[in-house]
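Milestone M4 deliverable, item 7.
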Amino acid sequence: MTPPAEASSAGPRNAALPSGVAAVDVETAARARAQAAAASIRHPLTVLLLTLTFGTGLVDAVSYLGLGRVFSANMTGNVVLLGFGIAGGYDLPVVAPIVSLMAFLAGAALGGALAQSIAHRHRAHLGAALAIEVTLVAVAALLTGLATVRPDAASGDIVIGLLALAMGVRNATVRRIAVPDLTTTVLTLTLTGLAADLRHLRANRTAAARRSLAVLAMLSGALVGALLLKTSPAWVLALAAALAAIAGVGYLRHPSSGDGP
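Output delivered:
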């Protein structure tokens, strides 16, 4: 018979075991999911991330071309533009990049908190993050469609803030999902990988295709956004919200979005 002291000390260790095993299973499932998405450009998660990358081009077309030379998704560009604006003499904004940066950071913090609380439930985690993004972009579309939104004005800053908040939530979420080369908002490392691994092209054509499609998706989104912007920024943002919603529902309904390994 186990002595009472041994039984009491063994109890907590055994009680802690299931949660530890569960944590390992969650990490294993997450890695397997990212590897599966990286292995095929037809994987539903890859398709979703490429669609969101296209949406980034749409959103930044509205921000940069329609709201006064500021980005809502590309924070590297905003930091550089802010430096130029502070220097003065180039007719570049200062307030708008700061609004975008602060809203993006707030969104990233929200996305991080969301991941911390429910990342072990992949479908719920991604669904919640996409719902937040779609809602914020849709509200921005409504504002630009129903109100007069001007650059360098409070109305423009509100729209920029909404879009940057959405992009911050998305970035924190995509960072947690960790599919290689598909960050959805920046392409610097994607382009670096595409060029640096050219000699391995035959051995790893999937990676080259994934990187090329990411570049093409953002380029196409920017082009479509710039063309649609000539009609109304509301249409551009409505398209971005609709695509994120449709692609998100498509992925979340697929068996590969389940929480298991």
